[in-house]
């Protein structure tokens, strides 16, 4: 199997210096990297540094005739398996969205027939500007995978989203693209993936695909293919995991809805830990303003019915972890227009209808995952309620947590894993630590229930 090839397009911006680390990481992992740098990018990193690290020629100009003789720009844009734009500046993304091709980088991006992954970096105001929001939506609609930028202090001193994701996170997204290929940009086959951070269609279809690369093998089984060797500890490598998280919003009329206080933090931490542990992760999220963890495929939904439909679409998976606080009821009828006070003092009636129980439905589904996990937030008789819920829902584990002391939205969690085998009680831990510990337990359990083929 040939080493996977990356065409790395480096835009201008202070974050361009991070491309040096990215190239180093990619080379170390065995990727072949060819760099193209924009004129603005050259202000921050030199082609010489990139050439030395990538051990490959660096391309800078469309009009360098020598380059055209050696390799035409069409060929350059197509010989890679994946085109990565990092940093993707506001300017570069605007040109990509508009289909402008006025330098080597933008010409390659328009000419390529390969999937494109963009890692944005810009000032927070620029990232939040309506024009950039539009461009990002257009690019995602065209099948370009646009990562969420990191949040934090910027080189300019402002604070917020817009920092280039760390090189390890970009590499994780690249690794994920090779284990579950991205769609082709430009509508060549990817189809619209508007609100997705990584495209869902590929998550779905990859279930039926033969192993796309040795990357699906488990660590230690790589018969010399170290190009694809997963990072040190990836016990869920080769697994597909579906996670629901956050609340659902059930509309009453166009401006009002029924909701709950779920923050989504534990579910998002679990999705992050699952991706870190090497799994392909599909996160079906209710409305929460949390950033998408690196390497995670996210689908945003509003209602329980939408969540149920997306869960069904996401199957089959090795494990499903249902962390979402799904609303038990929705408004029986949603008013098409805002319900108005008429001054009579009469309160409008609000009839409720029961929502589908997604977890219980999945337990009965012919595509029931080998490991099905539910959550239970309780204020009293925690274990007894969790045991009853385990039986009622037909799942394998219930992760029970007492929300009487630390209500939803906190940073830590004390959980008890309730199963047929008994109760495994853990200390109070930060939510990220709960998530990581859960991944270890899930990996062990999956090895028992559904061992991976070791070829
Ligand atoms: O019944 P209860 O809401 O307490 O059950 C909690 C568990 O069931 C969680 O795992 C939650 O994600 C799941 N659930 C669901 N669909 C519902 C209600 C709860 O998947 N309609």
Automatic annotation (TrEMBL):
Molecular function per GO: FMN binding; metal ion binding; phosphopantothenate--cysteine ligase activity; phosphopantothenoylcysteine decarboxylase activity
Cofactor: FMN; Mg(2+)
UniProt remark on cofactor binding: Binds 1 FMN per subunit.
E.C. numbers: 4.1.1.36, 6.3.2.5
Domain (DNA/pantothenate metabolism flavoprotein C-terminal) ranges: 237-444
Alphabetical list of Pfam families matching this protein: DFP (PF04127), Flavoprotein (PF02441)
GO CC terms of this entry: phosphopantothenoylcysteine decarboxylase complex
Flavoprotein domain ranges (all copies): 5-170
Catalytic activity: N-[(R)-4-phosphopantothenoyl]-L-cysteine + H(+) = (R)-4'-phosphopantetheine + CO2; (R)-4'-phosphopantothenate + L-cysteine + CTP = N-[(R)-4-phosphopantothenoyl]-L-cysteine + CMP + diphosphate + H(+)
Entry's Gene Ontology BP terms: coenzyme A biosynthetic process; pantothenate catabolic process
Renumbered residue ranges of the record's region Disordered: 204-232
Region spans: Phosphopantothenoylcysteine decarboxylase: 1-240
InterPro entries listed in its UniProt record: CoaB-like_sf, CoaBC, DNA/pantothenate-metab_flavo_C, Flavin_trans-like, Flavoprotein
Active site residues of this protein: 156 (proton donor)
Purpose: Catalyzes two sequential steps in the biosynthesis of coenzyme A. In the first step cysteine is conjugated to 4'-phosphopantothenate to form 4-phosphopantothenoylcysteine. In the second step the latter compound is decarboxylated to form 4'-phosphopantotheine.
Name of the protein: Coenzyme A biosynthesis bifunctional protein CoaBC
Gene source species: Sphingopyxis italica
